[in-house]
TrEMBL record:
Family in the record: Belongs to the DegT/DnrJ/EryC1 family.
Protein name: DegT/DnrJ/EryC1/StrS family aminotransferase
Domain of life where this protein originates: Bacteria
CDD domains assigned: AHBA_syn
Keywords tagged on the record: Aminotransferase, Pyridoxal phosphate, Transferase
PANTHER family, per database record: 3-OXO-GLUCOSE-6-PHOSPHATE:GLUTAMATE AMINOTRANSFERASE, TRANSAMINASE
A GO MF label: transaminase activity
Residues forming the catalytic site: K184 (proton acceptor)
Pfam families reported in the protein's UniProt record: DegT_DnrJ_EryC1 (PF01041)
InterPro entries to which the protein is assigned, alphabetical: DegT/StrS_aminotransferase (IPR000653), PyrdxlP-dep_Trfase (IPR015424), PyrdxlP-dep_Trfase_major (IPR015421), PyrdxlP-dep_Trfase_small (IPR015422)
Modified residues (N6-(pyridoxal phosphate)lysine): K184
């Protein structure tokens, strides 16, 4: 049996047909930028996440950069970033000319609770990341940030659909950033992202920045950029959004099978909380000191896995920074993502769990 980590060509034929029809309709209309699909997408996300503003943009990295720019963060400023995340979180801080200050994560990969110790006079913002789809403790992060008068930019790129006490990921901070990269729980057929904010002034700034600093046709009031979403991607996303709840149920059902089958293996750490609302089951990350051996064993059995991520950011050449970061580092050495997506079957998950059990010799 061969089980790929994620194979998007497995999207079911009914949805594939709807996507083809959407493409054909937009091609016939000749609308490729802006228009009804973009408006509908933004409104639908506003409703789904209960966010006052939802501004679609070209990708999740841009969303983060736009957030920093809207908050006027730049040279001389510091931004606190977890040591373990996708590189974009730190990259954007450097792009705007500010300095990322790396802080360790907790054992699950979320910004460690004592991050406030990293606050200095130069600190302008903190970027908590809802890594693997698990939500950071936003109550305490927002409270601490407020009392220190710094902004919160939520990197919710991996956490679409995650909620904490009924409030959606991305709607807690001053600005929340989403990615609709194809591998995400809500993914486009290409690149797309979004900024969420509950503040009308910030929303207006982001809208202007996305569109060359233009407030109306040929009236440029600031130096912006082009980070508009493609109409076609918005159209595809509207279709995927209609299937989102079904896909989430499928992810959770499969995650439950993993937990049931792998529970009790003494040498394997599991994401025990993955079925809760504050986790969208984006990634199923197990932990073992024999990570590389397990990965090779599964590869020989035809099972694809992934590592999120093999390196902490402060160890990367362009982001070199001193510090121990023991929890983040441990995840880079011991974390392994097993296949979890709406397109794998229960039979495949059983094959994976049997193989993991075989590896541990039980
Ligand atoms: C945590 C995190 N931040 C930011 C991004 C950037 O999103 P994008 O790939 O859409 O630019 C991603 C996704 O790749 C991510 O996982």
């Amino acid at each position: 049996m061969k089980v790929p980590f994620l194979d998007l060509s497995r999207i079911d034929s009914e949805l594939k047909e709807e996507l083809k029809q959407k493409f054909a309709a937009l091609l016939d209309k000749g609308v490729f930028s802006g228009g009804k699909e973009v408006d509908l997408f933004e409104r639908s996300i506003q409703d789904k996440l209960n966010s006052r503003n939802a501004i679609a943009c070209a990708n999740g990295t841009d969303a983060l950069e736009l957030a920093l720019r809207a908050l006027q963060i730049g040279p001389g400023d510091e931004v606190i970033v977890p040591a373990l995340t996708w590189v974009s979180t730190a990259e954007v801080v450097r792009i705007v000319g500010a300095k990322p200050i790396f802080w360790d994560t907790d054992e699950k990969g979320l910004l460690r609770a004592d991050w406030v110790k990293a606050i200095s006079k130069q600190t302008k913002a903190v970027i908590p990341v809802h890594l693997y789809g698990r939500m950071a403790d936003m109550e305490s992060i927002c409270e601490a940030a407020k009392s220190s008068r710094i902004a919160v930019i939520e990197d919710a790129a991996q956490a679409f659909g995650t909620t904490r006490n009924g409030k959606a990921a991305g709607t807690w901070g001053d600005i929340g950033c989403l990615s609709f990269y194809p591998t995400k729980n809500l993914g486009a057929l290409g690149e797309a992202g979004m900024c969420l904010t509950q503040d009308e002034k910030i929303a207006e700034k982001i809208r202007v920045l996305i569109n060359h600093g233009q407030v109306s046709r040929d009236d440029h009031v600031s130096v912006g950029r082009n980070s508009r979403i493609d109409s076609i991607q918005a159209g595809f996303l509207n279709l995927f959004l209609g299937r989102f709840d079904d896909f989430q149920k499928r992810r959770k059902d499969l995650a439950k099978v993993y937990l049931e089958k792998l529970g009790g293996l003494p040498k394997l750490g599991l994401p025990e909380d993955i079925l809760a609302d504050d986790h969208n089951a984006h990634l199923f990350v197990v932990e073992t000191t024999k990570r590389d051996e397990l990965r090779n064993f599964l590869k020989e059995k035809g099972i694809g896995t992934a590592i999120h991520y093999p390196k902490i950011i402060p160890d990367m050449e362009p982001y070199q920074s001193q510090g121990d970061f023991p929890n983040a580092r441990k995840l880079t050495e011991q974390g392994l993502s097993l296949p979890l997506n709406p397109w794998i079957t229960e039979g495949e998950v059983n094959y994976i769990t049997d193989s993991v059990i075989e590896f541990f010799g039980l």
